[in-house]
Amino acid sequence: MTSADTIDLFSPDLLRVRVVEWQAPGPAAKAAMAMSGMEAMCAIRDGRLPPPPMAKLIGFRMRIIEPERIVMELDPHESLESTIGLMHGATAAALLDTAMGCAISTVLPAGQTSVTLDLKLTYLRPLSLRSGTVSAEGKVIKLGRQTSYAEGFVRDGRGSLAVHATATFSMIGGEPRKQDTTQEKTK
Hints:
Elements lengths: L2 H4 L18 H9 L3 H9 L7 H6 L1 E7 L2 E6 L14 H17 L7 E11 L10 E10 L3 E9 L5 E12 L8 E2 L5
């Protein structure tokens, strides 16, 4: 007899409820497109623009905003766990996709944005509630007129690397301020 046989897995005592509220994204997107990417990122961080619905759903927030670099934070919670008690890998993917895309946004003029073409993640260690505050860093590797590249890192609360990512983004709208720049990687 297993523990699953002795516990009612659908007991009301085990039920969890989470309510998520967000602002309609359309008006915020329109307001953000009138700002430079850096201005929009700072406005979200400072509460002058509402965060995207995905940020409210998962529970992440912007911590650091610099040209070509963004750091997001997330306090792990039970609603992000898989059936084996670890944070679902899609959480890290959403964090990294957002952080890398926002890093690119920091150097874009008003009216220009980017969308993800591909996203590659390598999971190095699992994350869980015990991981502490998780940080996701996105950095611009190459900003181009049509295509841009970024790199991302998810670290646990102790600073240990848990996930590494690279992504390609398609540029949409106007011309970037800096064309075909390359950021030197420093480690």
